[in-house]
């Protein structure tokens, strides 16, 4: 794959991630607003402006908690990715080492067999 194609693919992946994040956040906002509306409906004694204030505070609080949760999840994902990449590198090195050792043994056995045949 050419460098231009790789860059285009990486940019498209980044754009896809941004769109997915935006859609996730919009869905979170919609859920927070729906829950706030349900919460405020039970408080019949509130005035219209009080209802709006309670609704706004409920949404703000919900979004604050959602943002903290998403940040915590993202940090955990980054940590797991680093751990898995490190383990994959170790496994790859181990496999290459075993392949080189097996190749060396095979070459030695072949050389010994050829020297016996001559």
Structure description:
The structure is a single chain. It contains 2 helices and no strands. 92% of the residues lie in helices and 0% in strands. Helix 1 packs antiparallel against helix 2. It is mainly alpha-helical and 118 residues long. The longest helix is centred in the C-terminal third of the chain and has 70 residues, at 48-117.
Present the secondary structure layout.
Blueprint: H1 3-41, H2 48-117
| Percent helix | over 70%
Number of helices: 2
The stretches of 5 or more residues where confidence is low (pLDDT under 50) are none
User: What is the percentage of strand-forming residues?
Assistant: under 5%
Distance between the termini: 48 Å
**SS elements, strand count:** 0
Question: Could you spell the SSE succession in H and E letters?
Answer: HH
SSE class: mainly alpha
| Integer-rounded radius of gyration | 30 Å
Shape: rod-shaped
Q: What is the arithmetic mean of pLDDT?
A: 89
Largest sheet: none
Short overview:
The chain is mostly helical and 118 residues long. The protein is built from two helices and no strands. It has helices at residues 3-41, 48-117.
What key attributes describe this structure?
118 residues; 92% helix
């Amino acid at each position: 794959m050419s460098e231009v194609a790789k860059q285009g693919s990486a940019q498209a992946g980044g754009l896809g991630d941004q769109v997915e994040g935006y859609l996730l956040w919009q869905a979170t906002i919609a859920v927070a607003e729906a829950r706030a509306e349900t919460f405020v409906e039970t408080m019949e004694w509130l005035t219209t402006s009080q209802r709006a204030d309670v609704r706004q505070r409920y949404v703000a609080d919900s979004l604050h908690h959602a943002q903290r949760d998403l940040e915590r999840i993202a940090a955990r994902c980054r940590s797991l990715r680093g751990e898995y990449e490190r383990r994959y590198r170790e496994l790859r090195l181990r496999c290459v080492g075993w392949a080189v050792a097996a190749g060396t043994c095979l070459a030695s056995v072949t050389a010994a067999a050829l020297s016996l045949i001559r």
